[in-house]
Amino acid sequence: MLAAVAALGAEAVIPSQPRRRIARPMDLACYRQRHQIERLMSRLKQFRFLATLYDKTASSYLGFVHFVCTLL
User: Fold this and answer.
1) Is the dihedral of CA 48, 34, 5, 18 positive or negative?
2) Which of its termini does the chain have fewer beta carbons within 10 Å around, N or C?
3) Alpha-carbon span 65 to 14, nearest angstrom
């Protein structure tokens, strides 16, 4: 899985298991940013109309995303 991420030119920011013999290096600043984004996405999914919305244009969908982010 990590090889597929590396092939895309991205860096995996996943902490290794505590029982792992050789700990994988992790950038703590990137992990904090990733965690904030994942929390925002889970909060956005609470708004049912946004999770199931299929608009014709990307700009109107983005408008709904901005509206919900303002509410949060």
Assistant:
1) negative
2) N
3) 27
18-68 tens-digit pLDDT: 898 888 888 889 889 989 989 988 888 887 776 666 667 777 778 888 888
Q: Measured between alpha carbons, how far is 12 from 58 in angstroms, rounded to an integer?
A: 28
- Report d(CA 72, CA 27) in Å as an integer: 28
Model pTM score: 0.58
Number of H helices, E strands in the chain: 4, 0
Q: Cα(44)–Cα(34) distance, rounded to whole angstroms?
A: 15
Separation of alpha carbons 12 and 52, rounded Å: 29
CA 16 – CA 41 distance, rounded (Å): 23
